[in-house]
Amino acid sequence: MATARFRQRSSYINHSILFFMALTIILPLLVLIFNSIKPVEEFGTNPLGFPTEIRLMNYYDAWVNGNYTQIFFNSMTLVVGTLILNLTVSGLAAFSLAALNPRGIQTVVVGLYLLVGISIPAQLYILPLFLMWKSLYLLDTRIGLIIIYSALNAPFATFLIRSYMLQLPTELFEAAKLDGASTMQLFTRVALPLSWPVFLTTALIVSLNVWNEFLFAITFIITDDYKPISSILFAFQSRFANDYGLVSAASILMAAPIAILFMFFQRRFIAGLTSGATKG
Amino acid sequence: MPKFLTNINAISWYFLMPVLFIHFFVIAFPSILSLLLCLTDWNGFGKINYVGLENFEELFRDRIFKKAVYHNFIWTIMFLTIPVIVALIIAYLLTGIKRGQLFYRLVYFFPYILASIVNCLIWRYIFHPKHGLGGWFENQGIDFLSKSPFAMKETALYAVAWVDMWHFWGFLVIIYLTGMYQVDESLYEAADIEGATKFQKFRYITIPMIRPIFILSLIIIIIWSVPTFDYVYILTMGGPAYSSEVVANHLYSQAFQRMNVGYASTIGVMMFFYVGIIVGFFALLRRLGWEV
Asked: What is the DSSP letter of B131?
């Protein structure tokens, strides 16, 4: 009994520490949300609190001034394009490594190659890549950035999908093969339908990475009309430096799709992001 | 190898081709170019002259580079201590509660999925001298944070690191939590019978049991803090007076503002070698049976 009561009391302390740390995250986020609905005049008198007058027009202004219809379209194009290209190449590779020849020399060679690829800092190759893209007319195009993002996310996606496909029973492939399926059909008819959960997880993480990416976005897209949301928001911060209502609304518009996806797929996000780091 | 899969070696290579091709094209080939360009004085347009190791000599004389390396070092040390300690404690506390655990996990993890640009905006506002905390204190008549920590030489680097750590530590919590849930419950029960305190259990059971994942997290931090760029670039651009300049930033300005292709490649090569040495070091430890 005594220990039970002791546990009870120490759990209050635990809860208050945990709650305090949660506040250090929630409060700054609340300030951002308050700011996004605050009129400009109120920022001086009421810098942190809830606005006395709610002004949703900030969102409209941000959408119109930021040309957000175009910008969202650009970012969505990058996400969808990267998903198509990245999941195709990574899925094929993962299938080969997991089902076709799991113990072959390929696994070692490719695994090592991609691991080295992960450890290379982007700064080593960004400048030659920039010059290459320039001479190939891929600079300042969305397709150019899609190719880069697909490559950047390929090692992580390949490892993640492979680790899932390794758990598929080999009997399935053998049975399909006996029924006369080609290798490609083994992939599209057997492996793909069975491993959709890992494709969903991978797709979520890749979308997140592409949506939030900053370094390549500011470097490889120069024309405003093609810029994705992260580099536009960066330009916003200097252009409307003092209009915090508008800039806050603009950044919430950027964070909202990710936050909504996170609410629906929290487990997948967390599992994907942590296993991406610990396995890669 | 099963008999039904004849010629499987060739076919399995075909399936690997696309990913290898795209990865080579975007990452490996330009990396090799960089390793070659660091021996030249190319500026992106004119003739390419071979200059040997001149760039490296210049780099070791470059005061800004030295400063940047020092800042990266501080950065790594900060990330190896503050978020790691906080995350260990919080993860340990989280294993002790049932109600509300999911809520806390989601909240701590949330900043990790936000874009760097959004996180920076939040904290630039909070640290804004006229608005944010400074403005709030001013309204109360207290002179605190009346200057932005991003704009002062003494604090700029730490303020930027603060924002990045705020966004990062929840990720570590989840990693450690995963490790802690794999610890055998009976160990704690045995310790309870022996009358171990909470701290003793943490020190003598939790820490040794999560060692592999813990060491892994340290490696990740060391490797990830080398190319750190976003937060510094967005918040301070390395300023004021290079007081928050990090290596990646120095490289970026050499590369894209001054077009010193050779020199920028040299910095990139140094970063690559450094990461290579770290990875090699831990790989060696593992081969020597250190179980890291």
From this structure: S
DSSP lists the bridge partners of residue A259 as none
pLDDT for B247 equals 92
The answer to whether A127 contacts B116, with C-beta atoms less than 8 Å apart, is no
Which ranges constitute the DSSP H helices of A49-195?
Answer: 57-65, 68-95, 105-119, 122-135, 142-165, 170-178, 183-185, 192-194
Residue A6 and residue A143 in one domain: no
Contact criterion met (CB below 8 Å) for B104 and B189: no
Based on the domain organization, do A39 and A69 belong to the same domain?
no
Q: Which residues pair with B40 in a beta bridge?
A: B50
Is residue A253 located within the same domain as residue A179? yes
Rounded to the nearest 5 degrees, what angle is found at the Cα of A78, between the Cα atoms of A74 and A80? 115
Q: Which of A25, A126, A270 sits opposite B174 (nearest CB)?
A: A270
For the entire predicted model, the pTM comes to 0.89
Q: A39: domain range?
A: 2-55
Contacts of A85 in chain B (CB under 8 A): 22
CA dist., res. B193 & res. B26, Å (int) = 58
Yes or no, beta carbons of A18 and B90 under 8 Å apart:
yes
Contact A203, A83 (CB under 8 A): yes
ipTM computed for the complex: 0.88
Question: If you search the block for the tokens 């470097």, which residue do you land on?
Answer: A219
- pLDDT tens-digit series, residues A11-30: 788 889 999 999 999 999 99
Give the residue on B whose Cα is nearest the Cα of A212.
B115
- What's the rounded Cα separation, in Å, for the pair B224 and B112? 14
3-state secondary structure of B48: coil
Kindly state the DSSP code that residue B6 receives in the 8-state scheme.
Answer: T
Query: How many domains does one find in chain A?
Result: 2
**CATH 1.10.530.10 applies to domain B74-235:** no
**Closest C-alpha among A81, A101, A202, A194 to residue A145:** A81
Which amino acid would we find at residue A249? Answer: A
* Whether residues A153 and A260 fall in one domain: yes
Which residue ranges make up each domain of chain B?
A: 74-235
Across the interface, which of A124, A178, A259 has its CB nearest the CB of B34? A124
What percent of chain B is helix, strand and coil (3-state, nearest 5)?
70, 0, 25
Q: How far apart are CA B166 and CA B81, in angstroms?
A: 13
Nearest Cα residue to B2 out of A204, A19, A103: A103
What pLDDT does A4 receive?
A: 47
CATH number of the domain enclosing A188: 1.10.3720.10
Residues A99 and A20 in one domain: no
| pLDDT bracket for residue A67 (50, 70, 90) | confident
How many CB pairs lie under 8 A apart between chains A and B?
A: 274
Q: How many CA atoms lie within 13 A of A159 on its CB side?
A: 22
Residues A87, A154 within the same domain:
yes
Residue A251: enclosing H or E segment and its boundaries? helix A244-264
